[in-house]
Amino acid sequence: MAKRVGIEVSLAISEAVKLAKVDAVAAYPITPQTHIVEHLSELVAEGELDAAFIPVESEHSAMSVCAGTSAAGARTYTATSSQGLALMNEILFIIPALRLPVVMTIANRALSGPISIWNDHSDIMSVRDTGWIAIFVENGQEAFDLTLQSFKIAEDHRVLLPISVNLDGFTLSHVIEPHEFLDQDEVDRFLPEYKPAVQLNPDDPVSMGTVGVPEIYAEAKKCQDEVLKGSIKVVKEVFAEFAEMFGREYKVVETYRAEGAETLLMTMGSVSETAMEAIDKMQEAGRKVGLIRLRLWRPFPADDLRAEMGSVKTLAVIDRAVSFGGAGGPVAGEVRSALYNVDDSPYIASFIAGLGGRDITVDDFIEMVDQAEAMAKVNEIHEYKMIGVRE
Amino acid sequence: MENLNVYAAKMAPQQEFLAGGHRACQGCAELLAARLVAKTLGHDYIIANATGCLEIVTSSYPHSAWEVPWIHVAFENAAAVASGVEAAVKILQKKGKYPVDRKITILAQAGDGGTVDIGLQALSGALERGHDMIYICYDNEAYMNTGVQRSSSTPYGATTTTSPAGAADPLGQHTMKKNIVEIAAAHNIPYVATASPSYPFDLMEKVKKASETPGPAYIHCFVPCPTGWRMAPNLAVSIGRIAAESKVFPLYEVVNGEYRMTVTHKKHRPVIDYLKPQGRFRHLNEDNIAEIQQQVDKSYERLLKKVKMSSTELD
């Protein structure tokens, strides 16, 4: 039977990885990802997890080793943050192109410079177009559940793509929360052994990663994008199966008290829980405000987002990264694209907040709603507004 | 050399695992070497290949010259990818989840750029971690795939497209070839060797030894490149022989730290015999050549000292 455990979120993720019976973990330490991989190496050393733990000399090699383990047919996991993700960048593009279902936790952290170990989303946003499925979690239970579900989604033969599970560094990775753990037999029923579609095997040799001449490159890329877009169907199926088996329901786009709302705040990650408090406070004051959260960042759930726009007049999108020289935060840009040609689409206000570990408070969320509604009233043309910044 | 006498051309495996019809240049010694390596390792091995000449000429989709499992990920990470394949095959075999339960040899292969420059970190990591694999560097002494740019494996005095000999700077490459063999040996791995397809049985013997040695093995294979070295394609094999005969590229191995020459010569040729047929050295004057002779003598002496210090090999 499932049991409730009070444990640091990083360790809960490691426990999920253990329950997934991964075959290989390759990782390089970087704050704030360290507790996850430390605990995994401990589980391997204690004999609780029968896996190869490969302590590599860099994140570039971590992802390269993952390419090798996954191509050889091993269920493969890694974790990183910030500079580590940036160092992996080159290989991140190749993993989905080779259709390798690697699962990676990203303890989201600001990118240098100035160097910062604290949380924002600049790391994941910088790898937006690498072709990975990207999922955001808001609390420890979600981190545990979605880590398990990620293996099932990634390894589905209709998908065979890597997944990053994003959680806010420190503000989520390092807090102790109650988690409802699943037992091994429950996980085994949900997540069967990984059966590779293609694997490096001398009895059935294949060449992987061959040269893409101009005659086939475009087709290869189109095919890859179709598979990534199509994976949303599998994501939903797996979410549904998980809900059916364990009672915890996940959606690609989540809402909170959004029925009848005229203004929606849009968030990703652990700030959503602070945003919920702000929504509660504003609704108590009689305001028609709700919350919408993107659980799935890639593939972008445009249809699901549009379906939630019913009565919404104003949408305040909160980004935790800057697209330098661009027209707003990366999430806001995406949302504007998704809603641009839609009849009666809401006014979209773009806010950037919470960079490099700066707190976003309940009052900040209320201020964003105030500003967004005022801007909507006059249909203010803007790129983005930064909240909580000294000017 | 032990067992060398049992090797004869007709005893070499007949089967080819690197098929013909690939796109290498005429006289490419890298492909010759890779074919011999493939022959030696036979059926039960997996290749992790770095980006480079060998990768592009053998794998233009939808064609592949490889009849063994082969993966290419990127330029600088063949050692890391091979580490992953090795670790995965090992754990999956242990768990009874790998389709083959025979011993599988893991081979990483890369050019000199992918090894001594951009791939050095991944190589060092893989050697240090002790993966049971062979790493072969096919050294043609420059970035040939991108058009003959200098690498840190380019020898002193060679002209390349980024170390050109010009009016103001007539030498070409100013730096000495990086001694990657010593760097590999400094990792205290069980087997390190130099090899050359101009000495095919020596090469095959070393590959065989490397595959039978548990733990990491590093083979540095000298592969003349007629295109980049600006010489006639039919000289590729003979220039490799002259490289050994002139002490430019001595053939030796380091087994558990003990140095041993595997091909010796009663009399050595002067380096000019090696330099002269190659257009990349055509600009060198007598002083330059004397300087190179001195360098070659000195590093050969240093190597001989190590061989002599390896007392168990003093037979």
Secondary-structure element string of chain B: HEHEHEHHEHEHEHHEEHH
At the fold tier of CATH, the topology name of the largest domain in chain A is: Rossmann fold
Main β-sheet of chain B: number of strands, strand sense, barrel status?
8 strands, mixed
Give the CATH level 1 class of the largest domain in chain A.
Alpha Beta
- Count the domains of chain B: 1
CATH superfamily of chain B: Thiamin diphosphate (ThDP)-binding fold, Pyr/PP domains
Tell me the structural class of chain B: alpha/beta
What is the H-and-E element order of chain A?
A: EHEHEHEHEHEHEEHEHEEHEEHEHEHE
Please tell me about this protein's structure.
The complex is a heterodimer of chains A (391) and B (315). Chain A has 391 residues and is α/β, with parallel strands linked by helices. In chain A, 53% of the residues are buried. Chain A has helices spanning 9-19, 34-45, 59-71, 82-97, 122-126, 140-155, 184-190, 214-246, 271-284, 302-307, 330-339, 362-377, and strands spanning 3-8, 24-27, 52-55, 76-80, 103-108, 133-136, 163-168, 176-181, 207-208, 253-256, 263-267, 289-294, 296-298, 314-319, 347-352, 385-386. In chain A, strand 2 (24-27), helix 2 (34-45) and strand 3 form a beta-alpha-beta unit. A seven-stranded mixed sheet of chain A has the order 3-2-4-5-7-6-13, sandwiched between helices. A six-stranded mixed sheet of chain A has the order 10-12-11-14-15-16, with helices on both faces. In chain A, strands 1-8 form a two-stranded antiparallel sheet. Chain A folds into two domains: 3-246, Thiamin diphosphate (ThDP)-binding fold, Pyr/PP domains (Rossmann fold); 253-386, Rossmann fold (3-Layer(aba) Sandwich). Chain B is of the alpha/beta class and 315 residues long. Chain B has a single domain (4-313), classed as 3-Layer(aba) Sandwich (Rossmann fold). Chain B has eleven helices and eight strands. Chain B has an eight-stranded mixed sheet, with helices on both faces. In chain B, helix 1 crosses helix 7 (200-212). The radius of gyration of chain B is 19 Å and the shape is globular. The termini of chain B are close together. Chains A and B meet through strand 3, helix 3, helix 4 and strand 9 of A and strand 1, strand 2, helix 3 and helix 5 of B. Strand 9 of chain A pairs parallel with strand 2 of chain B, so a sheet runs across the interface.
